Amino acid sequence: MTTTNSQTHAISQNPFTGERIAEYPFDTTLALEAAVSQGSAAFKQWRKTDVQQRAKLLVNLAAELRSASEDIARMITLEMGKPVKQARAEVEKSAGLCEWYAKNGPAMLAPEPTMVDNGEAHIHYRPSGMILAIMPWNFPVWQILRGAVPALLAGNTFLLKPAPNVMGTTYLVKQAALKAGFPAGAFGVINVGNPAVAELIADPRVVAVTVTGSVRAGAAIAELAGKSLKKCVLELGGSDPFIVLNDASLDEAVKAAVAGRYQNTGQVCAAAKRFIVEEGVLDAFTAKFVAATQALVTGDPLDDATYIGPMARYDLRDELDKQVQDTLAEGATLLLGGEKIAGNGNFYAPTILSNVTPEMTAFRQELFGPVAAITVAHDADHAVELANDSEFGLSATIFTTDLARAEQMTNELETGGVFINGYSASDPRVAFGGVKKSGYGRELSHFGLREFCNVQTVWSNRK
Hints:
About 40% of the residues lie in helices and about 20% in strands. The protein is an alpha/beta fold and about 475 residues long. The longest helix is centred in the first third of the chain and has 25 residues, at about 85-110. The relative contact order is 0.14.
């Protein structure tokens, strides 16, 4: 590897205090080559390890995560501003992910008989090799393990390039994996710039790529993977519609709307962002939503009482503010917030925009921060039309007491997931992923476990 880059360090900076936590020099050419070689070599033995033994190590990893939960949660909070109570929940959710796959995954990888005349054909799920993972900062434990756990259980090795502002958290996760007993190279971490990523994708020792990030990043990486004929899974942006129909339970809808929009300070790809409300309940829903949002505590993310923390990066706050101001200039109404909070910390006020129409910025673009946009729908059909009027298709929410109508609406919604009377979430038991510019491929469940497997047909005694 010969890549050079003008940037030489990954920088971890506390978005609440502005203080620099640490600098992590990029890997040298020799260190990067060693990591790739180690991961490739580890695969040859790891693939032969019995699946039950792999599962046992996942149970160990869950225990190690829980043992280090306070240290990991604190590092998450320091590096990207997630309120510490939510950071602890992320660590616990990740431990649960390990345990679920340890319990259920081996059966999903068992050979499956097929319907051939002599009954001696089977489908086998074989590991593919070393998977390159390019992961974001907003869920710096869950995102990593959401990709790593099924890949490792399937017998692949995992080479991770994390976001540069959460390197401290990443190294704590790697330490937990080593303590759990995973062999050196099975779970590798590299610290490199974008030019090195291009070389890695072209490297024959990397067999596939998984990416969670922006549409721009996903398109660039998919192009590189395509040139090398390598599979990739893309989990990209989202502008999820949250539909509230006239017969909805408004108290439940508002409770879900607040959690679905403002969790993790709104920095979630699958967060509710476009609130599409049928006109019969528009005023009542809006009033309740504004009141509930006003009650959220914004402040020190290390305080358990805090629900809204600082945004992770200063440039993203500037970008979000521009989107809000552009939308207001286009004719939307400001009901709450709409500004950077002065003083210490990279805070943006929890914001609600109303009278947002499809041509406006807040409807067309992803709002990656604590901003909600309300759009009126004339009826359920119009709500679906508005929901689908987006380049994204990650998930959608429907609130209604008419479950039959909700089920019918799911047939028409162009999203990877639909949540009826509950806000969008990821769970190891169900597949997660999107359509359109939200990406392709699936994570979690048996779909994610087999995503990077060689699906091999073995047919004996064919005559």
